[in-house]
Amino acid sequence: MPPQIIQLEHSESSKSLSSKHEGESTSDPSQSQTNARSDGSTSNGSFVREDTRIVNRTKAIVYICLLLASIAISVAAFFFVKKSEESVFEAEFRDLAGEIIELSETNAANTVGQVRSLATAISSHASTSQTAEVWPNITLPFFTQQVQEAIRLTGSELFAFTPMVPLEQRQSFEAYAAMEWPKHNKGQIPPNIHNVQGEVMSEKDDQDSTFIPVWQVAPPANDLDIMLLDMDTFPWFHQLKQDVLEVQHVVMSGIVDVEYLLKATRQQEVSEWHPRSIILEAVQKTLHSDNLDLTYTDPGGFVLAVLPWEKYFKNVLPHDIHGFIVEVNDHCGTIVTYRVDGHNATVVGQGNLHNTKYNYLHMEANFAGFAQYDGADTSVEHCYYTIDVYPTDELKDKYMTNDPYLFALAILGVFLFTTGIFFCYDCAVERRQRNISRVAKRTTDIVKSLFPKNVQERIMAEAKQEAEMVEKGMGKGTFRISMKDRLKETLDAGDRNESVHKNMPPIADLFPSTTIMFADLVGFTAWSSMREPAQVFLLLETIYSEFDTIAKRRRIFKVETVGDCYVAACGLPDPRRDHAVAMARFARDCRACMMSLMNELEVTLGPDTGELGLRVGLHSGPVTGGVLRGEKARFQLFGDTMNTTARIETTGKKNMIHISEETANILQAFGKGHWTKLREDKVNAKGKGELTTYWLVKDDGPRSTSSGVSSSEGEDEGRMRDDTTSLFSNATPSKSNALSEKAQRLVKWNAEVLAKILKDVVQRRQALNTIPNFEAVRLIEEVTQVGHVLGEVTEILALPTFDAEAAARQEKLAPVVLEEKVMQQLEKYVHAIATLYRNNAFHNFEHVSHVTMSVTKLFSRIVAPEVSGDDRTLHDHTYGITSEPLTQFAAAFAALIHDVDHQGVTNATLIEEQSPIAAVYHNKSVAEQNSVDIAWSLLMDDAFIDLRNCIYTTPAEYNRFRQLIVNLVMATDIMDKSLSQARKDRWAKAFAENNNNNSVFPEELEEQINRKATIVLEHVIQASDVSHTMQHWHIYRKWNARLFEEMMTAYRQGRAQKNPADVWYEGEIGFFDFYIIPLAKKLKECGVFGVSSDEYLNYAETNRKEWEAKGRQVVAEMVARLDAPGLH
């Protein structure tokens, strides 16, 4: 019967489990008899036993597989992590090795530059000397003092000047030396030109009848026997001299022994061996303006520098990086091995001494190619250098850790732990199954004994139905959804259009224990006034997305963002006892994240981004939370706690976490009282009166200190001055690697800005199918002279005409990717320009970065004006400026270089002081011309040839780029009356009301358009140079204070006659009335800048009113700050 069958199945199942776990034998005769009396019991029991054996075997296989898998994955993880560490080591080595090669090459270039500068100084002295000195009877005044700085910068051990003395002039030179030496030096020098043995050189053994005596040395010689030593008697010097005269540029010798010279100038003996090379440069007898490239037309002597090789490798690595091997091969038979550890380099010995197991990693590079022999003489061996860089075991050990073993053991442990848990779970399941089987057997027996078959079926069916209903959440297993659960489900639903619970009461609840956080960006209002909308949203999205990530990790509920304010809550929708502690940790994490992000974003978003801060306020208390259903429904919080939190935040300080007394009490209750510090002054909150508040002071790593003064607009009125000295770690403009981290970020940002425009330049060139002519470009580069910038200023810049076909082709071209070497040279050039800026308060590299940012912003408004139509319409509307990306690149480039080497004083001061550069530029636009010449000469260096080839490829492009640079930089000289009047005349002629383009010839129309384009471009650079006056009040205050400090510094140094504090207030008003506001109006009148012209004019007028109201107080504050101790 069916009931009997069911009973037997449960019985057999129970027996099978019992046989396994309780030791009962399934072959017991009595059990066999019982099974025999049951219908089909024997076959069912056999099936259960067979199934049990299969399950047990399967479990055994699973355990074995888990064990093997754990071992295999652990081994794989070990090798994977080890390989990852090796990959990191190799990548770091290649980066650092490349840095060693690059910076050592830079050090060599600096040394060559110093040698060239000394040679130029001697030639200049010989050319301008008013005495009767003639070659070779030349003595450079103050030789030691002039060379001392070069020795300090390069690490050279000796500089020497050796004139070329023909045989027939030997006696006259010896007489000159005997007469001239006592005038400047002490002691007695040898009377005759001699060799190293002291023998008098009366004639030459070879056909060369010229002596090369040592005449001036630095450091001064202690042993005067080296004076008048004929260097030409040294075979290596004779060959080096011949090489220099043949190739007509500086040449570096092989590794030579010059200990005889060095011993004569040392203060103490040196026992260590230091390989050295000589850098030799010829000295021209005269220096003419048409021969500034120092082509050897008439050499009169030589300048040599002795430099130990380890100097090239010092300060090329961070101080905490150790273990690099550098092998120097002069290819003249000498190989020297050095070890570079941080800032130091030491000689290991001669030969290849690196560990050969790192041969696969070594990096090789030619060294100082600009100072190698590149002539055609193959009769003798000419030295040239290569350097090979290898790692050491010490370096590798820094990157190799025990992580592979730890990862392998951890994975193995996890697998073993998981296997153990699985085994325990299996035992628990088997035990539960045995219990269920026993209960099922008893239940079946009871039902069978009490109810007939049909009743049994109904009971079983009802039980099954109830179980199914419970599983579905219905019937006896259901319950009402609470308000908090409905609220939580609604929050989880996000922005779905359909409500989760239709036709329900409002979804809201009281949360009695919460902590609320308001976090506001300090300085955001002023910062955003200088940016494009896309940059503003990029900043906010980056910050808030990081905050959201932290919130998820900390289980904090993000409520909303209102402008630049981030609102979050803890203790809802799920209550938390530690809500204040969790929120304090969240606030601390947000602050640390913010400070890290700002430094990173400064490379992308430009100057002042790193100065943004976060002001945080925390308060604890009850809030009402709910969903306001309807259009764009969202979750909101209400109550006095929200208002108090807002007051706590607005009365806080930059980069500090301000907490209420209630929050501090909760932290105290949780044992976190040491996290808080009582605020000394009471906070007067609107609608609350005086409040006692605290600071959250738990250390979370490096922090930015608060200014201690709050502002309702998120700005620090108390400190408008940045620490300008942090931009440059050394005031010497020519010293490499002197840039701070902030300045290096600005370098990268400027390089990215220029690279973006340069890509458009290349793409437009591709669309025009321009054929490069680099040979002609090189020729025209050579004839460009320095010292005549002002004479190159033109009234009208000739911009290209519109090419419709090229515009159509350009739209179809793929985006341009600049070559890696171009990007490297561009960043290297910007870095070099940055080092040329002096440590001025206003005219510094940060200032020109702001100017560049303003130029690019104005150009973005030109490129996308509010006009409709095709590219031709855009071209005509903007006077052709949009048709030539090279114009935009030149404007940004001019902004970058326009204040290079600015001395922190006006042109009038330079002229009054009779500065040498004032004489060079005939007392006209001195600083501006000097900036152009310095920056242009740097760009013409061979190190930037690929960059130049990317900027211009034809003489026409070169001339247009040069003309744009000259006109734009000269436009920044607003004090020159003639230049200013010329610009006013051009404006009046270009934008006269009676201009009628319909009645002129095409040639005249093109001239009118170019004239308008010229004056617009000049006004762009002018407005950008003073853009701080047409931006947010706090930006104006910051840069106005810096300019005041710079002018005051000049006054206190005696370089200015008037105290700027006496006229600063009235001067600023006049500056606004007669320059800034008229300039802003012209930007609007020219009609190509869209809303930016209104924006600039509005800010200018607003700042003028603010200054008129507050200026006298501001001046007094600036004077007081500069007079404060420690700020002089």
UniProtKB/TrEMBL annotation:
Span-the-membrane segments of this chain are 60-81
Gene Ontology biological process terms from the UniProt entry: intracellular signal transduction; receptor guanylyl cyclase signaling pathway
Report keywords, A-Z: Lyase, Membrane, Nucleotide-binding, Transmembrane, Transmembrane helix
Q: Which residue intervals are annotated with compositional bias (Polar residues) in the record? A: 26-46, 725-734
Q: Give coiled-coil spans as residue ranges.
A: none
- PROSITE patterns in the cross-refs: GUANYLATE_CYCLASE_2, PDEASE_I_2
Cite a GO CC annotation: plasma membrane
Q: Which ranges carry the Guanylate cyclase domain?
A: 515-649
Any Pfam family from its record, for instance, is Guanylate_cyc
Q: What is the first-listed, main subcellular location in coarse terms? A: membrane
The domain of life for this entry's organism is Eukaryota
Q: Which molecular-function annotations from GO does this UniProt entry contain? A: 3',5'-cyclic-nucleotide phosphodiesterase activity; adenylate cyclase activity; guanylate cyclase activity; nucleotide binding; peptide receptor activity
Q: Where is composition skewed (Basic and acidic residues) in this entry?
A: 9-24
Where the record annotates domain PDEase, the positions are 767-1046
Report residue spans for region: Disordered.
1-46, 699-734
Subcellular localization, as worded in the UniProt entry: Membrane
InterPro entries linked to this entry: A/G_cyclase, Cyclic_nucleotide_synthase, HD/PDEase_dom, Nucleotide_cyclase, PDEase_catalytic_dom, PDEase_catalytic_dom_sf
State the protein's name: Phosphodiesterase
Q: What is the organism field in this record?
A: Fistulifera solaris (Oleaginous diatom)
